[in-house]
Amino acid sequence: MVDGWQVATKRRGRRAPAKDGGLHGAIGFRTSSCQAAKLKAARFEGDDCCHPFSDDVDAATEEEQKMFVMMTERVEARVREQASRLRDSDFFRQVRDSAAGALERARESLLVPAVAAGEDECGGSSGSTSTGRLLCLGVGSTQVSQSSVLQLALAWLLAESLGLRARAWSDPQMRPADRSVGLALGFKALPPATALKEYFDEATPTLLFMPHCDRALYEGALAGGSDSDRHRRLAATVILGNSFRLYVERDELRVLPSGSPGAPGERNWIREVEPMASEWALPSYAPCEEAFNDLSLVGFVTAGRHVETQPAH
C-alpha cells in the first residue's frame, strides 16, 4: 500500500509484466531524438514508481528507442480504436449524459458558468458544457491491460465530449509508455503521492474518474480538512467509480472483516458523506464487462442519497 494505493495486481484480467525482455520487458531510450522528447515529457522527477525502463537514458541502443516508439504508437492506436467503438454505444451515451448532468449541478452549486464548447476531437459536438477538470486515478497500465485501455478510452471520450480540457491521470503501475500515450490524448501524468493535492480545486467542478479503485483511495479523496473545507471540496466533485451505496450495505452486513481490502478504514468516510451524496447507477458494457461493471456516478450537491438507473439530466 502506497498512500492509499494498492499496488498489487488488484484488477481482474491484468497481467503481470513480462520477464522475457520483449516489449513488456526492460527497454531503454535515448534523449537525442524527437521521440526521446516524448519520453522526457512522460517522466517526472523523483519518480519512484516501478517501470520497465532503465534509469540510464543514455545507455540504450537505437533499436531500443525504436521499440519504445513502436510500442507507444501501438498502445495509443488501441486506445483510439476502443474509443471509436465506445463512442457509438448506448453505454457511452448514458455515461456521458449522466456525467454532464452531475457536473452541471456541481457547477450550479459553485456558481460557475458553463462555456460553449466546439466540436470535439472525436468528431462530435461537445455541447454547452464546460468549465471543469478531469482526474483519472487507478486506471493502471494501458501497456499491459485491456481493461486499462478501455478505461482510458472512456476517460478521453468524456473529456472531449464534455469539454474538459484540464485533464490528468495517475497510477503507481504507470510506465513511461503510458505517460506518453496519455500526453498524446491531453492527459498530464501526476505522481501518485501528490495527485489529489495537486489537482483538486474547490472552485472548479472536478470529475474524479476512479473505476474499480481500492476503497482506501476513495476515502483518501473524501478525507481531510475541516468539515466546511471538505463540504466545499465535495460540492465541486463528481466521482465515477464504485458504488458508495454498495459499500454502505456491505458495512452494515459486516461482510468484510476489519483491515481487509474493501473494509472501511479507522474512520468510515464513505458512510460519513452518505447523507450529502447522490448516486446514479451506470449500465454495464457488454463487450468487456470487467472494465466497467458495478459503477456509479456520485455527486455531492443535493442532500439525501438516491439511486437512478437512467441518465441524470
Supply database-style keywords.
39% helix; Rossmann fold; 8-stranded mixed beta sheet; 8 strands; alpha/beta; 313 residues
**Model regions low in confidence, pLDDT < 50 over at least 5 residues:** 6-36, 38-57, 116-129, 302-313
Strand order of the largest sheet: 3-2-1-4-5-7-6-8
Please give the radius of gyration in angstroms: 19 Å
What order do the SSEs take from the amino end to the carboxyl end, as H and E? Answer: HHHEHEHEHEHHEHHEHEE
Report the CATH topology name. Answer: Rossmann fold
**How many beta-strand segments?**
8
Count of DSSP H/I helices: 11
Tell me the β content: 5-15%
How would the global form be characterised? globular
CATH architecture: 3-Layer(aba) Sandwich
Q: What structural class do helix, strand and pairing data support?
A: alpha/beta
Instruction: Output the CATH class name.
Output: Alpha Beta
Number of domains: 1
What does the largest sheet look like? 8 strands, mixed
